[in-house]
Amino acid sequence: EPGTRQLADLLASARDAGLLLMPSGKARHIIRLLIPLTIEPDVLHEGLDIFERCLAALA
Length: 59
Description:
- By secondary structure, this protein is mainly alpha-helical.
- The chain has one domain.
- It is built from two helices and two strands, in the order αββα.
- It has helices at 4-16, 41-58, and strands spanning 22-24, 30-32.
- β1 and β2 form a beta hairpin.
- The longest helix is centred in the C-terminal third of the chain and has 18 residues, at 41-58.
- The chain is globular.
């Protein structure tokens, strides 16, 4: 069974930290990252750092 509860917690945590993530998939248990091709490297790293911290908090 997909971890939909964990994903909901991750989405909320990321949103609170300023990062918007998009759930996807039939059961809404997949995370889609929609990163623009023109993103600045420092902005990309900031977003990935937030994502990593939010994932670590779930463990």
